[in-house]
Amino acid sequence: MAFFFVCISSLLIISISSYVFQLVADRRSQLPPGPTPLPFIGNLLDVASELPHRSLARLAGRHGPLMTVRLGKLVAVVASSPSTARDVLQTHNGRLTGRSPPDAWLALGHAANSVFVLPPGRRWRALRRMGTEHLLSARRLDGERLRPLLRDAVLDLVRRVSGMAAAGTVEVGRAAFAAMMDLQWRAMFSAGLDDAAAALALHDAAREAVALSLKPNVSDFFPGLAAADLQGVRRRFARRVAMVYQMIDEQVERRMQDRRDDEAGSGSRSGEKDLLDVMLDISEQGKDDGGMVTINRDVIRTFLTDIFLATVDTISSTIEWAMAELLQHPDTMSKLQEELRRVLGSKAHVEHSDVDRLPYLRAVMRETLRLHPVVPLVPNEAEETVEIHGHAVPKGCTVLVNLWAVHRDAGAWPEPDRFMPERFLTMKPEEAGFLGTTEFEFIPFSAGRRVCLGLPLATRMVHAILGSLMHRFEWTLPPEVKENCVDMSESLGLTMIMATPLQAIAKSVV
């Protein structure tokens, strides 16, 4: 018994000593100020009280726009204002673009080839270049192969909504997710998801995978416990991603057989190459275009999964948030529909070429993304020590840009919590673009070297989808939702989505 008490006392002394040493070391290191951490858990209780982007914004209100928080073993510096965001994403961006993968992404070795979590280097640059040049560039999206696919995706969504409306209420996010899923599949593989059962299985696997991607996980805060996977996040992520992998592998095998048939003179494939063709060409050559990175089956599988999950979730969640805001602001919705009727006339849907003539539609989308940024917290890692606003950001430190807080900065945005698209009508076009304002008050797709890879696709699809849904249907809330108000609570996964899926009633007007 005496030995037990001696052990406990020793552990307490060591813990208290470590805690005091940590506090002294923090002061000497010139880290930005922040809430006082507790032993072992740091500031986890401060952050876990609500969604992290909200709790970190609340803490920044007390400790400043550049602050330090300790989340278990993780030391994070958080930027929460336009000026600190500019320092991270522009001034010092070359040294603050590292990234450590969340524990869930270690499942099936996904992180080893993921363009989203790879550190900046040859492999990361090669994959980004591949996605940009062969699928997600403006030139590709406006080309002969992809432009019709984008149009067909909008029309497909309109058909889905019509079908849902005839059967009852419309689950907006689910319909948009399904339409974007089919679009992205066709863009990558030149093949549709024609098997209804397989499409449904892929839909469910993809939605859960993105929900688990950045789910708060004790393994990320206490790496020593990661092997136990106490919350089961890595195991669940592995099961869902494995299903996506399997369906991608089937496409790869089918395409390789087609290529063998072509070589034998019995194939029939023709036309512009899709992304899978490009990756298989590089794989057969042994290296990427620069001769620096090998593209093998693991790289192909992971890269296509990343592109697929990110693009479908980003656009569908943005549409759902926009619809939720408009349904709660009927005057704004009426103003938007009047603009669409005036500009489009009898035209059935919005195309990218129409968007320049639809300033109020653009303003609605920008205001939606201001209030509901796709990724509210952008994580980077310091590759070397830098100084920001007189404080040190040490090498290896996690650097979070809280886009949600930046977009609600009262100094930049009057009435920051109010949905008011008119604020964007007074801005010059170059000040209100999706790439962000020069003063970094509005950066919905981040900025710098890690700017969102799917930005060109998003700029085309969110306007076309929202404009077409507003033009083709009259929208109202179900009586029970109207009585209790729309639940605008958030859920954080790969992107920020509505915790309660939006239900609405649609009536065709065309």
TrEMBL record:
The keyword GTP-binding does not apply. It holds the Pfam family p450. This is Cytochrome P450. Belongs to the cytochrome P450 family. One of its GO terms (molecular function) is oxidoreductase activity. Keywords: Heme, Iron, Metal-binding, Monooxygenase, Oxidoreductase, Plant defense. The keyword Transferase does not apply. Heme binds at residue 452. Its cofactor is heme. GO terms for biological process: defense response; diterpene phytoalexin biosynthetic process.
